[in-house]
Queue: 2 jobs
Job 1
Amino acid sequence: MDLVGLSYWSSWASLISLAVAAWNTYLILRIKAGIVLNVTLEPMLIRLKENSAELNRQLMYYEVNHHRFSEVAGICEADVKALRRRLGFIKSRFVRGPLRSMRTFRRDRSAANAQVVYASLLQVCQHVANMLEERRITG
Amino acid sequence: MALTQEDFVGAVAKLNDLTRRQVIKWSPCDPPRRAVTGAIGLALSGLSDEVAQAFEAFHEGRIVRVSRYAGQGGGILGLKPDRYILDVRDEDGNAMFEFPGVAGISDLFQSVRTQRLDIEGFIKKLVAG
């Protein structure tokens, strides 16, 4: 093989190795994200359930408890946003509605909007509980 | 159209909202009878350490009942978590339809207990008296 031929093949080899390195990086990042999700999903569900119970308590006498409700709703929003980031764009479609309701609540802190926030958080809890159940089965 | 899990979660949240707004009034009742089948089931039912508490309400022509089974101890596995059941019962106390175990039933039970406490009436009496 002459030098021109050798340089031709080595160029292709370097391009292929670059593609393999990029693919490996993608796989490592995906596995890392999967591990983070597996480890944090259950504590996240517990936290969301505790916070939804707290929101329910504050809703009972909302007129006097609306400050505390807003605080807990803010914590819930941060948790739901973290969930969206960890699940990725496609799998986290179910959090769009709850996040929209939280934005609406920030603009207008009425009891009706607070009730929508609570109800949408229950939907998130149910989705996460289902995901956790599926992960327990499939591993 | 078939009911989805979202529909059940939404229904529980709505019941909870109606409870908080005092549209639905709950009263204590007997917890649902658990089905005991066979000799082993009969023997195990005697060993059950669950304490049950239930409330019922009449809404939209149906009797809705929410119950809590509080586990006292779980032996070698530790404490048993509380179980919450929401069902629609007939006049004889038999569960005709049991809701799936969706999120929010425990919150509904807490709202019912708070409604039974009548904190608002208590505060108003204190202020007036």
Job 2
Amino acid sequence: MGSARDDTDDSLAIRLRDVGKSFGQLTAVDGLDLDVPRGIVLGLLGPNGAGKSTTMRMLTGQALADSGSIEVLGLTIPSQSKQARTRMGVVPQLDNLDTELTVRQNLTMFAVLYRIPRRERQAAVDRALSNASLSDRADSKVNDLSGGMRRRLLIARGLVHDPELVLLDEPTVGLDPQVRQDLWSLIDGLRAQGKTVLMSTHYIEEAERLADDVAVMSKGRVVAQGPPSELLSTHVGEQTIEYYGPPHRVAQIEQLAQDAGLATRRTGPAVSVLGAERAEPDLLRELGDGVARAANLEDVFVLLTGEVLE
Amino acid sequence: MTATSATRTVRRYERDAFEGVWNREWTLFRRFWASTTFSSVVQPTIYLLAFGLGVGTLVTAVDGIPYVQYVGTGTVATAVLFASAFPGMFNTYVKRVFQRSYDAMLAAPVTVDELVTAEGSWIAAKAGAFGTVPLVVTFFFGLTPAWGMLAVPFIGFLTGLGFAFFGMWTSAVVKTIDSFTYVTSAVLTPLFLVAGTFFPITNLPQWAQVLAQLNPLYHCVQLVRDACFGWRWPEDLGHLLFLVAFAGLMWVLAVRGLRGKLVG
């Protein structure tokens, strides 16, 4: 019995160990470790270029890792990627719907490719249409759909075979707020059905709203992972105070806070002092008037990576 | 459904991938059959009429075959070429680069091998069917029906398979879609002209005759003529084996080329 088998954990839907992937001189993924437990929504949070999409493609075997090991649903990738893909649904970031077919024809084609038995295909397609609220547009050409509808169809296509694992790559990028809310409800529904969802995003709000666990990704690796509340309490505390002022005053506040052992981050014309609930009253008086707010994942992200989202 | 798929074993080649690709193409063919058929059969038919009736006034017969029938049976290969190489090149490039359809399909349990084989076999099936049109036209110029002609769609399919895979391979090699101009001008046009379609290759210089032997279209033309006017053994077995080898080689190149572009 090999060590890889011994290390297999049935409670994990996805398991990556020390995975690396380069494209020429560009290192997209660098020593990535990631565990996704079954039955949760895990948000892979990182800016564009952090390696999220490459990671997604490696999970389906569409990109091949240069090093490390990947397991999906207990299957080794890429050698068993075809079998793994029968049990996962993929919603890509870029629209790759078949624009020459209708909505129903798109879903039917993938119902065939996902090996849904012929007698069950019609029901599966109808269910996918209904879940995506596209039943009344079933016979419309894809080109006649709005951006939001096309995105819903992409999700429906990835779910037509009722997969155990769903990979959502930036599911709401470029959509207006109302459409984004609709899609969030759809993704919430997946959690309610007990599916495992790995969702990459660079929207803080999306990760906070949908993810049970968040993995913060930067420069091709995960720098922190856990439930949002745990990430907040571990890294940035409960309260953040933003101080505005002329540059020399902002720099002074930053120095005072850092001297007192508090983390700070610049946010445009202001400086944010993290974990402000731990600050001594004397220090707070010295810092002056600021705008207090609850700490958020963006604070965590910026603190850990030094990068800015969006 | 999930429980079933969790326990089933997938094979390297499965019917579902072919059914999915063929269903899609059949759906589109039913919608666009008129334009697809028109573009694939009219040009070879014009060649047939232009050469057969035009040059036919100067040349009455070649190798004992009336010239219009000589050209008519030869342009079967031309129709097959047009119906296979061009879709293999352009359709594959568009689906991969602009529509990203292949990316979507490879996220499902479909492999590059299956994708290439399914797409190529669909194109070849159409090429086999379209290839018979010049033959039907030649009936009106006195071609006598023969049992061997029933093999013509299959010869067209086999040749079309090779050229479909050739087109798919080039679609993975060219940098832009405009680069197909070079393939058409520098590769397909010479192949089409030096295939024994309009004149016997024995009229060519020795070196050109040797090169013509490496031209798959030449072997297609010979097989079609022999299917119409009488089989010749073992020459026809040689032609058949050449076409099988051509299709096999092009399949390997197409799979490798597209795998390099689609899975990286």
